[in-house]
Amino acid sequence: MSISEKVQKSMAEGSWIRRMFEEGAALKQRYGKENVFDLSLGNPVMEPPAEFRRELKRLAEHPIPGMHRYMENAGYAETRAAVAAQLSLETGIKFTMNDIIMTCGAAGALNVVLKTILNQGDEVIIFAPYFVEYINYVDNHDGVARVLPTDGQFIPKLDAPESVIGAKTKAVIINSPNNPTGVVYSDDLLHRLGQLLREKEAEYGTQIFLVSDEAYRKIIYDGLEYPSPLHHHPQSIIVTSHSKDLALPGERIGYIAIHPDCSQRKELMDGLIFCNRTLGYVNAPALMQHIVRHLQLVTVSVAEYQQKRDFLYDHLIEMGYSVVKPRGAFYMFPKSPQGDDVAFVTELQQWKVLTVPGCGFGTPGYFRISYCVDDRTLKGCLAGFKKVAQKFNLC
Length: 395
Ligand SMILES: Cc1ncc(COP(=O)(O)O)c(C=O)c1O
Fold this sequence. Notes:
Blueprint: H1 5-13, H2 16-31, E1 37-38, H3 50-61, H4 77-91, E2 100-103, H5 105-117, E3 123-127, H6 133-140, E4 144-148, H7 159-164, E5 169-175, H8 187-204, E6 209-213, E7 236-241, E8 254-258, H9 265-278, H10 286-292, H11 302-319, E9 331-332, H12 341-350, E10 353-354, E11 356-357, E12 367-370, H13 375-391
Parallel strand pairs: 1-10, 3-4, 3-5, 5-6, 6-7
Antiparallel strand pairs: 2-8, 7-8, 9-12, 11-12
Helix pairs in contact: 3-10, 5-6, 5-9, 11-13
The structure holds pyridoxal-5'-phosphate.
Pyridoxal-5'-phosphate is lined by residues 42, 105-107, 131, 175, 179, 213, 215, 241, 243, 249, 254.
């Protein structure tokens, strides 16, 4: 075999989301697409907002000379300035373009951050359930992922890190609103986390970055205001993208923002820009940078996602499923009525409903539903959930 043993091993362990995708494709082939209810992928159902097409058309009709050339590795100054202005507005913290780097999505941003800050063997704390790629990304850059538990409401248990945060801890990754649970972390939790990190920094004479994955920051429900970790830890780095809030995952456009009060800010920025280049991203897509700088105030219809959440949540609760009500993103993470989540997901498949077992997110005993799907799929999946609920005597 010509590929590396490490890659062979990672591929064999695989991603459950990918596995379900492949099984779903086989089911669709066999029974017809319209008879399979696929809730396995976080691929936004919505089209990008009208403003996106307007900007795309404007650029096509009035191209800017040189708009497809190489640029500074951090991205266009105008785009970075627009992102900084929007972040300043949202957080009340004064960002400038010098705190922003445009990236190839949040995935690219995370890899750039981890490459920049990790020495071999440095530890990165993540909380289960987690976005499974974190494990791969930490490994990409010779780090060691330390997984910590959350409580019954999927809130990080801050007494657990007490024993785990040590001299080798370089970063803590948080993700709120969360994939796969939809949970949004409170200001109080972020305050306590910030305090804990600074205590540990003082104890070990280290710096611990709080890396906040905000891919779903703007998809937040019930009139909630987004509690930002920036207010609680100056060594904070935001990674995010427009994959979900503008429904542009295929366009690979996102950014890194570092807290303006971060220590050794210039060195950090220089490192991040260097890694954006040398990881081979070079820069974020030019066309998208020209467009999103005019769309910082625009999002897809969050109300529509909230309706989908309400519809599915209400039905599942009525059927007897145990679900923590999501406050953001477009996922929910119900308890598997049968302890074995893989067996339960397989059972649902018999009814042509595709979900992902919790073990794919480091948390067996649950399963993930992705409700960024059309209403036909949402309505169609109910019969399968009901049959399985009856089988397990939930009702
Ligand atoms: C929690 C989380 N972080 C990062 C990403 C990567 O997003 P992007 O498309 O911006 O790279 C995803 C994608 O689903 C995600 O769910």
